[in-house]
# Entry
Amino acid sequence: MRPAGTYDTTYGQDMATVRTKAQWIMLALFLAFLLAFPHFSGIRWTGVFSLMGITLIAVFGLHITTGLCGQINLGQAAFMAVGAYTSAVLTSKLGLPFLVALPCAGIMAGIVGLIFGAPSLRIKGFYLAMSTLAAQFIIIWAVTKLFGAAAMSVPYASIGGFVLDTDTKMYYLIIALTLIAGLAALNLTRTRAGRAFTAVRDNDLAAEVMGINLFFYKLLAFFIGCFYAGIAGSLWAHCYSFSIQPLQFTLKESVWYLGMIVVGGIGSTLGAVLGTVSIRLLDKVFAPYISPLLAAAFPFLRANVTYAAGAILFALVIIIFLTKQPRGLAHWWQIIKTSYRLWPYAH
Amino acid sequence: MFLQFLVSGIMIGGIYGLVALGLVLVYKSSRVLNLAHGSFLMILAWLCWSFAEQLGLPIWLSILLVLAISVLAGLGVERFMLRPLIGQPILAVIIATLALGYLLEGVAIMAWGADTKGLPEFIPREPIWLGPVSIAQHYLWAFGIAILLFVLLLLFFRYTKMGLGMQIVSEDQQVARSLGIRVKNILAQSWAFALVIAAISGILFASLNSVNNGNALIGLTKALPVMLLGGLESLYGALVGGIIVGIFEIVVGGYIDPWVGGGFSNVAPLFLMLVILLVRPYGIFGWQRIERI
Amino acid sequence: MLVMNAVEVRYLDVILVLRGVSLEVPEGKIVALLGGNGAGKSTVLKAISGLLETEEGKITDGSIYFNGTRIDRMSPEDIVRLGIVQVIEGRRVMEHLTTEQNLRGGAYLRHGDVKRELDMVYSYFPRLKELRHATAGYLSGGEQQMLVMGRAMMAHPKLMLLDEPSMGLAPLLTKEIFNMIQRFNSEEKTAMLIVEQNARAALSVAEHGYVIENGRVVLDAPAAKLANNPDVKEFYLGLSTVGEKRSYREVKHYRRRKRWLA
# Structure
């Protein structure tokens, strides 16, 4: 549903993401808000936003693999682990600069993703999900074998001579990369590859009949998705967690990421953003308020209430969304926009 | 040495097959892969522990109560989670069952913490010796129960009307309704059956090792490879696949573990699963997709 | 026996498919329902058998009575228990089960031994007896059509709803199927409502016929009269200029408009 009065006279306008002046202004305001954010929020909120940025990058990757191309990937957290450990090893053991380690982390994760995505040629749907589930467990096992289960410390990232040692500096790096990743994911739908992905998702037999090389595009989707995960993992290692352990990349995290794209709306980039932001907020902001209440109300509950409450809340949210609003938050947003634009007529 | 591995593998394969049997049952009738099966078996074992240790009930009564609760749980899951999800893409169902699994784990942590406890003994501890090979009695019981359930289910599917109804529902729900089969009832029954099996396998597994939240993982890391090897819809396959996976895990683990410093046997079934997916995704006895043009 | 009164059906609450359809199936008779693609014929059958529920459809107006009982609010399982069985279009067999298991599925609601019913079906379709233990998914199209009809016969329905029984079948096989239909109707006294694109075959066995177009009944007459109706002949039986060479310069079918189009 377009805003009233917009029409296209060129192909560029037809494909544009930002159409009206009002939209440009809102975009500019949003960017200004992001830039100025660390200066007026506290350390805690900067940290929360950094975490959201990192998660967003991983979720964008998952959105490309699963939401756009329909290849179910239950192991995104494991691919993040690959990126995190690659980056950590390259910087601390081999002394390579962060600017080299970051893309290497992405590429390494992408390659591992290709290995586990290769069976996808012959199998579809949840057979592929099983393969990625196996990937999740096997990768974490391999990482534990190679690097031990204990935490591995990760040095600060440094670009040129500029060391990223405060939360604010890291925040800027993360936000910049998140914006680039998001823009890339959004634009992907407008490219030839993006259209091929959607065709493969909707009906792969018909896509093959039309001449789309299924194997190539499925692998490409996997590679890009895991590349994103690798980048997110590297950022996680250097800019958020400083000591990485296999425990941080379990099936639980993979399910969280899938939950985020589902709650946000599968197949929509905006959905990925909405889902991630809302679930992270739920986890970081609301759960700490609810768990003391629970602990007070049910004193026989153990001390693990915080962790458990987060898990239960998250799981409930996902189940409720799946059963009541399968098209996710993005759909709600569309309805809000449409009814606003069509007011006072019914949408 | 090899013989001991082989026999242990067969025995533990019995339990894996039993867990997979529950998964196959649900898949056979509703085409849903219940990824929360492991979490169910873990939490039902905890319930049994609660009844037996915290409330002090005799162990047989605890087991019976848990079985009754699992029937109710099965009916509840079908009614409140599965029905709204009918007709949605596979991804939605996968995520829903995974989320349910985490919900249950969260509840387990809240109620019982992250401890490890032991179930009261109801199976003697001394292993039985067959020549040079020793078998723990738990394994034998598990194996025996698995075979018994397997035979009962096989007879059920072949000779009873409800069994035929379940197969029809798994093929085509619309046709099933056009023949007068109450699909909702059939789905509810198969879930109830499946959770009863989960309870039994959970209690057996817990009495073999201990009651712990980590038990939930076997639903994914062991039962799924078994299901894929045997074929998603096949009861035979669950048992045969269970035995093969069990043997593979123990034998391969026994020989390779010393080289890699342990732990390989845990992921060995997953490697096997990847190989199966590459070579023969439908498994040994699974239904092939019959596509006509 | 079956009376439909001004039934209106919507899919997904917005797509209006049937706009006030009224028809009747007398006891023990065969009635044909003709019409082009998308006219709403299958929807009529699904409205009667209750299977609209499975396709997000709803009867929003009108009523359907079967032997005095109002059935348009009932669930499909209950309607089957009243004696109405629908043979869904497209030869929907249970692919991984055997022929005999498929047939037993058809007798799901019967208690006790179904040997008598099986023998009856095998007497109508001897080919199925040979294929008793074959996997249904691998049968040929004609055999599968026989299987789904046999499956419906197993339930001894009072009213059988057949949706496009000749779809995708060779002409000789179509003839065989319709012979079976006529035989079953005369021997077991089962009423039948047959939806067909193959108007000639349908009108050869039916006593009465309806023509549906765009969700409305546009013609309603005994079968013999329908077969001789010039509009039906031109638009459904393909007989506009019998015996003459068709000259495209005349383009008659554009000039003769269907009388029932408003």
